[in-house]
Amino acid sequence: MGGIASSPIDPPRYVRTPLLRPRSEAKRSRIIDAAMQHFAKHGYHAARVGDIADELGIAKGSIFQHFGSKDGLFFEVYKRAVRSFSKYLDAPAEVRAAGFFEVLYYWLVRTEHLLHEDWIPYRISLLGNYGTDLVLKREINRFLTTEDPYGTVAFVRFGLERGELRKDTDVEMIVSILDWTVERFQDALLTAELDPALFRRQSQMPEKKEARIRQFLELLKRAIGTGSVAGKARPEIRKAAPPVAARKKAL
Q1: Which residue, 100, 230, 213, 216, is CA-closest to 155?
Q2: Which of 36, 141, 160, 189 has the fewest CB atoms within 10 Å, i.e. is most exposed?
Q3: CA gap 135, 9 in Å, rounded
Q4: What is the pTM of this model?
Q5: Which domain holds residue 224?
Q6: Nearest residue to 178 (alpha-carbon basis) of 96, 83, 107, 84
Q7: Which of 31, 49, 82 is the last residue of a domain?
Q8: Burial (0-12, 13-18, 19+ Cβ within 10 Å), 127
């Protein structure tokens, strides 16, 4: 798998999707479904549009007609994968009532659910975040910032309204801290099993993930939490069954 900007490429020719007829919409959806499976199995760089077309029994040019390029196709696959994940505030009501950091805890302890139940969309999100070239990565970052698919902004405002987050720190900065740290922490919890070659130092992960989660949350509390919240012990929360479509990060 090549790294960021591993090969010089022209900016992807993303297709602005017009209003489609039902048959065209259905065909486009079938292509995305097949491409999601193909990219998840082979990775971004090894995937071939021609192979996806062969699987579907259609002409390669038909895929380019709908998506413009391989990058354009992957971008649509990535968006579908990310949109399938739950948002932060989709946690059960009793967890939300316990507060901001309990919501984080709820999703973090369910991270492994992604590997076993949502492997394909999670794999796609990893490829988009770490295994694509720089031009495509910029488009992905723009999408994440514009659409906020994980509901991070609403989640941060939820924490501020409850008085659990620092009000002397810019909201966008807190959102960025969550995006940077939570996603990377969840990836570290899973990638040793999913893709040992994708990240470094995966063999040094402690066996007791619960302890790592607690330590991670304590660090976050000290960074963005109020002093009163940082010193509180975590209340016991009745464990709820994970949602059918648990989010990436499990978020």
Answers
A1: 100
A2: 141
A3: 8
A4: 0.76
A5: 86-230
A6: 107
A7: 82
A8: buried
57: its two tokens: 């029994």
- Dihedral sign for Cα atoms in the order 87, 16, 19, 54: negative
The string of pLDDT tens digits covering residues 120-167 is 998 999 899 888 888 899 999 999 989 999 999 999 999 999 999 999
181's tokens: 């740290």
CATH code where residue 56 lies: 1.10.10.60
Output the DSSP codes for 200-222: TTGGG--S-HHHHHHHHHHHHHH
What gap in Å lies between CA 202 and CA 43, rounded to an integer? 20
Whether residue 57 is found in the same domain as residue 98: no
The answer on 192 and 153 residing in a single domain is: yes
Q: Report the amino acid identity of residue 143.
A: F
Give the integer Cα–Cα distance in Å for 207 and 244: 26
Domain membership of residue 247 (yes or no) is no
Which residues touch 8 (CB under 8 Å, ≥6 apart)? none
- Give the integer Cα–Cα distance in Å for 48 and 35: 9
Are residues 221 and 126 part of one domain?
yes
Task: Give the integer Cα–Cα distance in Å for 5 and 17.
Answer: 27
